[in-house]
Amino acid sequence: MVRPLEERFRTVRDLLPDYRVETTQGRIVVNETGSWQHNTILSQLLFQIAGPVAGRGWEIWPNITVYLGQYADRYVPDLAVVPRSPRMWEEYAVHGDSTLLVVDVVTVGSTYDDYFVKPCGYAPGGVPLYLVIDPFQHRVRLYSEPGGGGYAKQTDVAEGEPLALPEPWGMSIDTANLLSAV
């Protein structure tokens, strides 16, 4: 008897607690923790958003699963920003519509999933903003205005151009600082 994907996902997640385990299009994907370049990009982003996040009483969560629906994929972004006391599905999974921003830094093996698969899962799950930082293409992409068919808006900026985050953020990300250190 083949076990349902959700059961296999939980088993792998429990067996490999030091890895990021997610399901993507019926696959269980095990990702190692990030390289120094990956972590430097995330650090630079954190320096920029920490003040506004703290000022609004929000929280920054690394390594949290985003619950997108009973039969939907389970993604583990590099960072998720959530309001205080977000709606949880399990202790390790926040509901997508209870996030404020989800962030992934592209790695060699994640390009297709980050640009094409995950936006199609995050949008119907209610994730309002999905930020993809791509050190290989030297660009940043923001998906916004989610709906059942995907995101209605996609904003691409090259390294060095500011990226405006819509309300409730009301701020811009300095992309030069994100990518210049790697």
From TrEMBL:
GO terms for molecular function: endonuclease activity. Transmembrane segments: none annotated. Pfam families: Uma2 (PF05685). CDD domains: DUF820-like. The keyword Nuclease applies. Residues 17-171 form the Putative restriction endonuclease domain. This is Uma2 family endonuclease. It comes from Nonomuraea cypriaca.
